[in-house]
């Protein structure tokens, strides 16, 4: 394959991964703040779908295309910007996997509550929401640094 085609797809997939992740997190975070069970049920359902349709394929494509690009460019994986990128990407992934699990459980709880006409979500939902929020910060922060490293290639 052509290097520039893969590089373009790599950049687009990074944008899709980060943009979808940030956008869905924004809507889920603020719908949770509304405490409106019906709104939370709708948003959590679409957040889960967006993660499977957009974020997951991008998460898989990123390291595959990145490693291919590194190989084509002749960059070695070591304690350089490449190694730090891989380390931060792995850290973000280790935060993201439990976030996805939490989102799916939160979606299910919200769906059940909305269908039953309940106006309050269970305490377990809010415990999951706290962990979902806490894990999101290092994941997004790590990906911001990865973006900078991909562009700057500082060392």
Structural description of this entry:
The protein is mainly alpha-helical and 155 residues long. The chain is built from 4 helices and no strands. α2 runs antiparallel to α3 and α3 runs antiparallel to α4. It is elongated.
Largest sheet: none
Strand coverage percent? under 5%
According to DSSP, the number of beta strands is: 0
Please report the distance between the alpha carbons of the first and last residues.
27 Å
Instruction: Indicate the mean pLDDT.
Output: 96
Find the structural class using helix and strand composition.
mainly alpha
| Oligomeric state of shown chains | single chain
Shape: elongated
Q: Residue share in helices?
A: over 70%
The arrangement of helices and strands along the chain is HHHH
Number of helices: 4
Radius of gyration: 18 Å
* Spans of at least 5 consecutive residues with low confidence: none
SSE topology sketch:
Layout: H1 3-34, H2 37-73, H3 81-116, H4 123-152
């Amino acid at each position: 394959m052509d290097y520039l085609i893969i590089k373009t797809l790599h950049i687009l997939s990074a944008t899709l991964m980060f943009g979808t992740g940030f956008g869905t997190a924004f809507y889920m975070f603020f719908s949770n703040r509304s405490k409106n069970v019906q709104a939370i049920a709708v948003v959590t359902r679409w957040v889960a779908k967006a993660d499977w349709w957009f974020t997951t394929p991008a998460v898989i494509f990123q390291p595959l295309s990145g490693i291919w690009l590194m190989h084509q460019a002749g960059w070695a994986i070591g304690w350089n910007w490449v190694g730090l990128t891989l380390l931060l990407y792995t850290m973000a992934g280790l935060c993201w996997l439990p976030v996805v699990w939490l989102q799916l459980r939160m979606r299910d709880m919200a769906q059940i509550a909305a269908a039953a006409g309940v106006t309050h979500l269970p305490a377990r939902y809010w415990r999951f929401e706290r962990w979902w929020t806490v894990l999101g910060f290092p994941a997004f922060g790590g990906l911001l640094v990865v973006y900078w490293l991909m562009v700057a290639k500082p060392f």
